[in-house]
Design brief:
The chain contains twelve helices and five strands. The protein is mostly helical and about 280 residues long. It starts with 12 loop residues before the first helix and ends with a helix.
């Protein structure tokens, strides 16, 4: 989009701003054109550090504020599942024994708020069923297919788990025992992950999302589902149960209260119905 013979000093803020605006007009996502701007910023920043340029013009570029439609706002607000939807989805997934491990993983995410990577990296060593605790101390790095450090320092945490999650983990441990008896003791021995596939590897994110969406279609859940919706759904459930914001933040490993608060502000449907009942009771 910029002539290859154009000197870097001529690529000013107006040129870059036009490029960003054009991308927005063409319908590129915010993530895409924001990533483009960041890379452009890095290139010009190098020019400044090396003395080729006086200023980095990219730092003055801002994306235009896009007015969202009512449908877009509603879609963002509906970025969580109600409790009955979670139960229906899990039940639909359990209808096939082939994806029982994914059903268990979904239930864990929905009732603990852990991220996909945290669930995928969870090992036997981080489980304390006797005291009902799991410790999050890493995340699954898909590119290298191995466990690495968690997203932030605040992500290191120990979570209390309800009885249904104890049963889910126990079910996975029983499955591991069966697989080792059939395939040998070396099955999943190196990683010792709780949620594993037929070959002992971690559950792939794309596979999980595809399975979840197919399950949602079967029970007619008309929402855009990814693994992250279960994290949002758990936070919404905590809000419904009246769990203090600080406790919710600690449980899900959030460092910025705004992230948790934005979900807390969108109360679940059952709470809305309860509000109406209470207001009617005042009349």
């Amino acid at each position: 989009m910029i002539d290859k013979d154009t000197p870097a000093r001529n690529v000013n803020r107006r040129v870059i701003q036009k490029l960003v605006n054009d991308m927005m007009d063409e319908g590129y996502s915010f993530t895409y054109y924001n990533g483009f701007k960041k890379r452009f910023h890095s290139v010009l920043d190098y020019g400044v550090r090396m003395g080729y340029l006086e200023t980095n013009e990219a730092k003055y570029v801002k994306p235009r504020k896009k007015t969202k439609t009512f449908e877009e706002v509603q879609e963002k607000r509906n970025n969580n599942l109600e409790l009955d939807e979670i139960k229906k989805l899990i039940q639909a997934l359990r209808a096939s024994w082939r994806v029982e491990h994914i059903a268990n993983m979904v239930e864990l995410m929905a009732f603990t708020g852990v991220r996909y990577g945290e669930a995928a990296a969870l090992t036997i060593n981080e489980i304390d069923l006797e005291n009902g605790l799991i410790t999050i101390n890493g995340t699954y790095y898909r590119a290298l297919k191995k466990k690495t450090t968690p997203k932030t320092d605040f992500s290191y945490r120990t979570i209390t788990i309800p009885d249904n999650i104890k049963e889910v983990i126990q079910d996975q441990l029983e499955s591991l025992k069966v697989n080792r008896s059939l395939k040998g003791n070396n099955f999943n021995k190196e990683n010792c992950i709780i949620f594993f596939t037929v070959n002992g590897s971690a559950v792939d994110l794309d596979t999980l999302n595809i399975v979840v969406r197919r399950g949602a279609e079967k029970v007619e859940i008309d929402k855009h589902l990814t693994s992250h919706i279960f994290r949002h759904s758990h936070i919404a459930l905590l809000a419904e149960l009246g769990v203090p914001l600080s406790a919710a933040m600690e449980r899900v490993g959030h460092t910025d209260y705004k992230t948790t608060l934005s979900i807390y502000s969108h109360v679940t449907q059952s709470v809305k119905v309860d509000i109406v009942k209470k207001l009617n009771g005042l009349i």
